Amino acid sequence: MHEQTVQIVSHERDAESYFRLVLRAPQIAPLIQPGQFAHVRILPLKDALLRRPFSIFQVAGDTFSILYKNVGKGTQALSRMRAGEELSVIAPLGHGFTVPKAGGETPLLVAGGYGMAAMFLLAQRSTQRGIVFVGGRRRVDILCEKDFAAIGWEVRVATEDGSHGEKGFVTIPLLAELKRTAAKRKLFACGPTPMLKAVGKIAEDFNMPAELSMDEHMCCGVGTCLACVIKVKAGDSWEYQRTCTEGPVYDSRQIVWEGTK
Amino acid sequence: MHEQTVQIVSHERDAESYFRLVLRAPQIAPLIQPGQFAHVRILPLKDALLRRPFSIFQVAGDTFSILYKNVGKGTQALSRMRAGEELSVIAPLGHGFTVPKAGGETPLLVAGGYGMAAMFLLAQRSTQRGIVFVGGRRRVDILCEKDFAAIGWEVRVATEDGSHGEKGFVTIPLLAELKRTAAKRKLFACGPTPMLKAVGKIAEDFNMPAELSMDEHMCCGVGTCLACVIKVKAGDSWEYQRTCTEGPVYDSRQIVWEGTK
Amino acid sequence: MNLSVQIGKLRMQNPVTVASGTFGYGAEYARLIDVNQLGAVTVKGIRLNPVPGNPTPRTAEVTSGMLNAIGLQGPGVDGFIKKYWPFLRELKVPTIINIWGTTVEEYAEVARRFDALGGVGALELNVSCPNIKEGGAQFGTDPKLLSQVVTACRAATTLPLITKMSPNVPNIAPLAKAAEDAGSDALAVTNSFPAMAIDVNTRKPKLANITGGLTGPAIKPIAVKLVWEASKAVKIPIIGMGGIQNADDAIEFLMAGATAVAVGTANFYEPQTSLQVIAGIRDFMEKKKISDVKEITGSFLPGK
Amino acid sequence: MNLSVQIGKLRMQNPVTVASGTFGYGAEYARLIDVNQLGAVTVKGIRLNPVPGNPTPRTAEVTSGMLNAIGLQGPGVDGFIKKYWPFLRELKVPTIINIWGTTVEEYAEVARRFDALGGVGALELNVSCPNIKEGGAQFGTDPKLLSQVVTACRAATTLPLITKMSPNVPNIAPLAKAAEDAGSDALAVTNSFPAMAIDVNTRKPKLANITGGLTGPAIKPIAVKLVWEASKAVKIPIIGMGGIQNADDAIEFLMAGATAVAVGTANFYEPQTSLQVIAGIRDFMEKKKISDVKEITGSFLPGK
Ligand SMILES: Cc1cc2nc3c(=O)[nH]c(=O)nc-3n(C[C@H](O)[C@H](O)[C@H](O)COP(=O)(O)OP(=O)(O)OC[C@H]3O[C@@H](n4cnc5c(N)ncnc54)[C@H](O)[C@@H]3O)c2cc1C
Ligand SMILES: Cc1cc2nc3c(=O)[nH]c(=O)nc-3n(C[C@H](O)[C@H](O)[C@H](O)COP(=O)(O)OP(=O)(O)OC[C@H]3O[C@@H](n4cnc5c(N)ncnc54)[C@H](O)[C@@H]3O)c2cc1C
Ligand SMILES: Cc1cc2nc3c(=O)[nH]c(=O)nc-3n(C[C@H](O)[C@H](O)[C@H](O)COP(=O)(O)O)c2cc1C
Ligand SMILES: Cc1cc2nc3c(=O)[nH]c(=O)nc-3n(C[C@H](O)[C@H](O)[C@H](O)COP(=O)(O)O)c2cc1C
Ligand code: FES
Ligand code: FES
Questions:
Q1: Which of A222, B258, C43, D105 is the most exposed place for a label (fewest CB within 10 A)?
Q2: Could you report the predicted ipTM of this complex, rounded to two decimals?
Q3: Domain ranges in chain A?
Q4: Among D129, D182, D195, D260, which one carries the catalytic annotation?
Q5: In this structure, which long-range contacts are made by residues D1-6, counting pairs with CB atoms below 8 Å and at least 24 apart in sequence?
Q6: Which residues does chain C have within 8 Å of residue B239's beta carbon, measured at their own beta carbons?
Q7: What is the DSSP secondary structure assignment for residue B207, as one 8-state letter?
Q8: What's the mean pLDDT in D196-201?
Q9: pLDDT digits (tens, 9 = 90+) for C157-169
Q10: CATH assignment of the domain containing C18
Q11: Contact A45 B47 (CB under 8 A)
């Protein structure tokens, strides 16, 4: 974990309100594990003070990139920044995914919307190929199809409006695949909480392992403020754990869903 | 008086920390009188909310310009803005100078630092030529010499460090000139309060008229908040008047100096 | 779509007024906005006699807000009636007159004078100005004194009475209740927060008065909470204010329990704010299919 | 140049600590900054037993600040000693432990336990947390209750006691005095301000707890004024806090009467802040030729 003032190397629109931002961060890039995130201070924001967390999307040499959606004032201000401008970044943060190894379970990656960003590095670092299931509301919300294809992964798509791939939630193609076989397979998911909950349920139903990257609002990102907690099983009871530190990735069996959005 | 969102037509550094900013403001430009000011909202400032007042420096066609010094967070943010970007402006505001007429008193303009900005339009609109006395700490603080020369006004300079013109305060060349003759002459001054006070004193000593443009911190700029008041004689007593509305220009005999900075 | 609201007998065509002291006496901003589109105009605080106010600097900019210690400069009742009432009387929208005094009797006398004037929309009792030695905040922080002021004014006028509450109390409920019980028709929540700033280079306070009132977006979350707490304590309507910059801010106050809102500090940097807020509330109602603005009042969902 | 200050028996090598609840238990930020350069480390509030804290969302961003309603999640005294004390004990700088309880007896018991532990720098009595039903702000707004808490803790420990004051009182002086008279060695001014925010689209509060504490630059002018008022009321030193982002902010608190300062919310967005503040105070002293930081305390010029 380092705090670094980093320069924007490139900044491109991906599709509609999605952007790809590449940052030069020589101290940070080598340390990154799939599923970890960067906590970004968007300096042009002045009356909004907090950092914003983004999954680390890709790593290349001394750079890393994020893939983000413009959803509010922080991402809006970020989207106006240009190559050469600076951000402050604390990264890599959090406890990421267990990288699948050749010969182990086949990874099935499930992503919704910007959740896709957390998946690419996992697929890339995995020595065992698998399938990526990706869902979104419309065609534009389906990200990175080409990127996954380029590293030899199969991609299955579902959109809520049916404009691309199957019509409906991403769990539809996933369930279809699992009905074929769930044996020696493992789920990895990142996306909105209802999707994660659905994936957790599927893992339970098929009695298969799943790692979920949880999306809670964060404040410090490093474990001091206790803002980002979720309920995690502890013996017969539960305890609050910090998704920024103990998470964001959890074994789905650990999670107490009651009380999540 | 209008509120208008205006575009920056050009923005150039004048000398060191001084900048010239030209704004296209077709509704406002035709209304401007010398000594009036524009109340500017610098939109990139987000946690600093108030407008900043600047004298109107020049008027040309549907544009007007200001000449400002980078002294704090507002002017700093302003100095980073580029042509094409927008500001919100309320102008023209305040009660300006009485424009000298041919055959009337000879105008002697006295300016300190950015106070020079308020003087150019006065000189330009005056049908009676006169002399401009300009003071500053160093050579770079002496603004607009060429602009005044271009409209045929004589400029006398004093710098505190002696790097340009006479060494000392601007009142030195002014006093020298008045000792020659003060008859049928009138002073017009804009600059820091101590300078205005000194000019007021000189006017009293020489029993000559003077109009002073007062520099008080402003908030609304239009007379509602009562932030910008100075003590002005009223019968045997005094009253607070709003420099943004009744001022910023006052006959020096009206001003009660006690309590000013 | 109905935007009108009632503050006691006072009908406002929409729930948006301006905060006392941030809109002069109405005429100043009339050159920049159509004042007749407001729900009401609220003017700067008036006491019986003229008040010179504090020395300068009277305002200072702070992070997302400002400090002021104007010291309630004002023309007194007679001066107001002579200089500003002719303009206000002709407006299509009602005028709320903010009044104060240094004694209970003075409050009542000022109320009586404005009652006699005729045509006034409502009186707002400023019992919470942090910038004057006497007659300021102490009336607004002690339920007994507050009750005396409101009772005396109630006896002096049949005009709607709005009591303007002080923000820095551990619990606003007993004070809100005291004002209601003494006959106040509405509450205004909230006045500015006692605060100060020092210029570390000169070591001088940024206000000549040393302390002043903090206003602007910085205080909004505290003000919203005070409105919510007050609205639970009383049945009378509340005019919410504190840092409103746009329609969402205003709607937040309405949802917290306010019946109307006032735009304050924002007038200084963006004189169009109050009209933008009205337009934005209308848009919100259209989008959310709300036919009466009163449905928004208190509509936030405290349960999860 | 002397930057060290005394808070009762506690010597701090410089006047800068961190605010309780914004620095975890010290270890978390130790990976980003050299914690041993601080004047002291102040840890998150601890009561006798473990506390789960509130449901989420627990924080919300607001203009120039944030709201929090963490609900004092914590490991209890034993959990703290087991999990966090081994790290803190080894630091070269002292630890200030922020403690609370729901009864006077619990405060005293927690104080006794930490007294027995040995090696603790000071205890900070949190009598002003707005986010818990019991044991929170009411101890901090009633001089009698405050006096009882401080008296009981005073009897339980010889460690320096710092009483952390509540901000939303009409007058902080009597409370400050009550804490001093009951044996407090210092005051911490101020805790967060009760506040709330509503998401107008969902109509839900932005915090699960509905209300929370406002902190950050937004509150600085109110906090500076509270420090000034408290410093006039008592002789014991004050640790000033509320919105400190840089050295100028910290110096403003010192000039207003604080002997030390704490960096709070700023840690979250800029973990280097506290060290930058220390460096900036040093620069300021050099520039202004001040040889002892204590000369800055209370040095503002209230007269014009
Ligand atoms: C571990 C983690 C990884 C993430 N990875 C990505 C990613 O790769 N790409 C991407 O586009 N987004 C990602 N997000 C979500 C991203 O952090 C939010 O979209 C972003 O903070 C919104 O900021 P804003 O200022 O634009 O929105 P606003 O709504 O204006 O933000 C207001 C506040 O709410 C917080 N907030 C709002 N939405 C979210 C959210 N969904 N999650 C957490 N905090 C939120 C903001 O951080 C801020 O504090 C991730 C979130 C988490 C927790
Ligand atoms: C009628 C009038 C005409 C002016 N004309 C010019 C001009 O032509 N050129 C020019 O460079 N400057 C002019 N000034 C001064 C200019 O307004 C300030 O330099 C500017 O407001 C500083 O803003 P800042 O944010 O950079 O400084 P900061 O110090 O960060 O400002 C903080 C606050 O103090 C106020 N403030 C600071 N200095 C002054 C000042 N000297 N006068 C008034 N308010 C101040 C700001 O408006 C702001 O509210 C004029 C001032 C007045 C009152
Ligand atoms: C410059 C200024 C002057 C004020 N004068 C008065 C006043 O005369 N009477 C009063 O009751 N409130 C006065 N107030 C308080 C406002 O009416 C309002 O309660 C406060 O500003 C909070 O709203 P805001 O944050 O939107 O400004 C004044 C506020 C400011 C900023
Ligand atoms: C997330 C968070 C948690 C806090 N927890 C505590 C606490 O446990 N005990 C306490 O006395 N104060 C607590 N505080 C208050 C701070 O210590 C401090 O008084 C307040 O944040 C003001 O300083 P700031 O504006 O610099 O943050 C907390 C503040 C925040 C933001
Ligand atoms: S975001 Fe602060 S503890 Fe996780
Ligand atoms: S600046 Fe508001 S009255 Fe002059």
A1: B258
A2: 0.96
A3: 2-93, 106-215
A4: D129
A5: D1/D282, D1/D285, D1/D286, D1/D290, D1/D291, D1/D292, D2/D291, D2/D292, D2/D293, D2/D294, D3/D278, D3/D281, D3/D282, D3/D285, D3/D293, D4/D293, D5/D39, D5/D237, D5/D259, D5/D260, D5/D293, D5/D294, D6/D237, D6/D259
A6: 52
A7: T
A8: 97
A9: 999 999 999 998 8
A10: 3.20.20.70
A11: no
**For residues C236-242, average pLDDT:** 98
Q: Work out the burial of residue A177: count CB atoms within 10 Å of its CB; fewer than 13 is exposed, 13-18 middle, 19 or more buried.
A: middle
> Distance between CA C265 and CA C20 in Å, rounded?
10
The pLDDT value given to residue C237: 98
Distance CA B166, CA C204 (A): 34
Looking at the structure of chain C, the number of domains it has is: 1
Residues of A in contact with D220 (CB under 8 A): none
Of residues A125, A120, A9, the one with CA closest to residue A58: A120
* Within a domain: C186: yes
**DSSP letter (8 states) at residue C30:** G
Residues with C-beta less than 6 Å from any ligand 4 atom? A 225; D 19-22, 44-45, 68, 70, 72, 98, 126, 129, 164, 191-192, 215-216, 219, 241-244, 264-265
Catalytic residue among C19, C77, C123, C129: C129
Instruction: For residue B92, report the phi and psi dihedrals to the nearest 5 degrees.
Output: -80, 145
Q: Which CATH architecture has domain A106-215?
A: 3-Layer(aba) Sandwich (3.40)
Query: Can you give the residue range of the structural domain that contains C79?
Result: 5-53+71-193+216-295
Least confident of A150-164, A188-202, C196-210: A150-164
Query: How many angstroms does the Cα of residue D213 sit away from the middle of ligand 4?
Result: 8
| Cβ–Cβ gap B227/C270 under 8 Å | no
Per CB-CB distance under 8 Å, the chain D contacts of A50 are 61, 66, 268-269
Examine domains B2-93 and B106-215 and report if their fold is the same.
Answer: no
Distance CA D132, CA B233 (A): 58
- C304: pLDDT strictly greater than 70: no
Residue whose token pair is 């432990």: D97
Report which bound ligand comes closest to the CA of D274: 4
Residue C41 forms part of a structural domain = yes
Burial class (CB in 10 A: 0-12, 13-18, 19+), D147: buried
Average pLDDT score, chain D: 95
Q: Which ligand is nearest to the CA of C67?
A: 3
**Any catalytic annotation for residue C153?**
no
The token duo for A223 is: 């474990």
| pLDDT given for residue A260 in this prediction | 65
User: Under DSSP, is residue D85 helix (H, G, I), strand (E, B) or coil?
Assistant: helix
Give all chains having 3 or more CB-to-CB distances under 8 Å with chain D. Answer: A, B, C
Nearest ligand to residue D44 Cα: 4
Chain A, 60 to 89: residues with Cβ < 8 Å from chain D are 88
For residue C265, report the distance from its CA to the centre of ligand 3, in Å: 7
The 3 state secondary structure assigned to D273-295 is: HHHHHHHHHHHHHHHCCCCEHHH
Q: In this complex, is the C-beta atom of B229 within 8 Å of any C-beta atom belonging to chain C?
A: yes
Is the pLDDT reported for residue C133 higher than 60?
Answer: no
Q: Look at the block and give the residue holding tokens 């707890």.
A: D209
What's the gap in Å between the CA of C294 and the closest CA on chain B? 31
Instruction: Pick D268's closest partner by Cβ from A1, A3, A219.
Output: A219
Domain B2-93's class?
mainly beta
List residues of A whose CB lies inside 8 A of any B CB: 44-47
Interface test with C, best of B51, B219, B246, B257 (most C CBs within 10 A): B219
Q: What is the pLDDT of residues C272-302, one digit of tens each?
A: 999 999 999 999 999 999 999 999 999 999 8
pTM beyond cutoff 0.90:
yes
Quickly count: other Cβ atoms within 10 Å of residue A123's Cβ. Answer: 25
- Domain assignment of residue C211, yes or no: no
User: Which residues on neighbouring strands pair with residue C167, listed in sequence order?
Assistant: none
Q: What was the pLDDT predicted at C165?
A: 94
